[in-house]
Amino acid sequence: MTDESQKGPDLARAALEAALRKRAAKASEPRQRSSPRKRGYSGPGPDPRDPAKFSDVLAKLIAQRGWSKPAAEATLFGSWATIVGPDIAAHSRPVTLDNGELTIEAESATWATQMRMLQRDILSRIGSTVGHNLVTKLRIHGPSTPGRSPRGKRT
Q1: pTM of whole model > 0.70?
Q2: Residue 92 carries which DSSP code?
Q3: Which H or E run includes 125?
Q4: Whole-number pLDDT of residue 2
Q5: CA–CA distance, 18 with 38 (Å, rounded to integer)
Q6: Is 70 exceeded by the pLDDT of residue 39?
């Protein structure tokens, strides 16, 4: 009903009248009952609309993307002190993980021997933290030292 010649207040009045007519026509139509829609707060029980914990969302994402093994490896290397305890961690460090074999470098030959004696306990701690299938064998060695020349042949 509006034409090009209307401007300013007349144009606004015509737009308002058209909107009111459209609303009145819609109100006179019979309402169709749709499925009930959840509104407001979720209530006392669990609800899909409730906020999720970040750790739960991250765990779901890791599982969906197939990042479980790399995440477990990162946890092993990043949380070494928490997994084996501060005493062992102060004298050792994980070096590589290859096909289930974790190579650990000890601070000294004495600590390497001590860790070999604690091997079952260390494997158990690793398994309870990152899963029992990630590390199946430990290879523990002392510090790398430069090679020595044979006795009597000093250069």
Answers
A1: no
A2: E
A3: helix 119-130
A4: 47
A5: 33
A6: no
Domain boundaries defined on the chain: 83-143
User: Residue 100 gets which letter from DSSP?
Assistant: T
Beta-carbon contacts of 118 under 8 Å, excluding residues fewer than 6 positions away, are 88
Six-digit token string for 118:
């604690």
Q: At what angle do helices 119-130 and 68-78 cross, to 10 degrees?
A: 130
The DSSP 8-state label assigned to residue 50 in this structure reads S
Q: Where are the alpha helices (DSSP H) in 6-108?
A: 9-28, 54-65, 68-78, 80-84, 86-90
What backbone torsions phi and psi does residue 130 show, to the nearest 5 degrees?
-115, 0
For the record, the structure tokens of 10 come out as 């007349």
Here the tokens at position 142 are: 């002392």
Pairing assessment for the beta strands 137-141 and 92-98 based on DSSP bridges: unpaired
> What does the pLDDT look like over 81-113, one tens digit per residue?
999 999 999 999 999 999 999 999 999 999 999
Identify the sign of the CA torsion 143, 109, 82, 76. positive
